[in-house]
Design a protein that fits this description.
Order of helices and strands: HHHEHHE
Mean pLDDT: 88
Oligomer: single chain
Radius of gyration: 14 Å
Distance between the termini: 14 Å
Largest sheet: 2 strands, antiparallel
Structural class: mainly alpha
Shape: globular
Strand order of the largest sheet: 1-2
């Protein structure tokens, strides 16, 4: 019940709707090219985590028994250059802004978790904790 309440408050007040929308928009733009399709799928997968992050965590795909595709590290480096840095900056700004108030601190920390995700979205999976 607490996870549901935190996710609801996050979505409405903490910027979850904006974070999820930002990841969906990024995924849509990336899906326009053949090269961007894997990045788009990763962005869509993370959009659900961005909209409702409480009670979930992102782990390496190998931790859940999946194989990581060869070249994932190189693809993550390209991701950082073209999309990840901008998404991370937006999450950091939102996180700092929310941490300026006592009530916003848990939401600010959620934005910081999302900023970390911006640097390696490929090869990660969302799991419930």
């Amino acid at each position: 019940m607490m996870t549901f309440l935190l996710n609801l408050l996050w979505f409405v007040l903490g910027g979850g709707w904006a974070a999820g929308l930002l990841w969906i928009l990024t995924g849509c733009i990336l899906m326009l090219t053949v090269v961007g399709i894997p990045f788009g799928w990763a962005a869509f997968r993370i959009a659900g985590f961005a909209a409702f992050p409480y009670g979930k965590t992102l782990v390496d795909a190998r931790a859940v028994g999946e194989d990581v595709i060869t070249g994932t590290t190189l693809a993550n480096i390209l991701w950082i250059i073209f999309a990840g840095i901008w998404l991370a900056i937006s999450h950091i700004i939102a996180g700092v802004s929310l941490c300026l108030t006592i009530i916003g601190i848990p939401f600010g920390f959620a934005h910081f978790r999302l900023a970390a995700v911006c640097f390696a979205p490929l090869g990660t999976r969302t799991v419930s904790i």
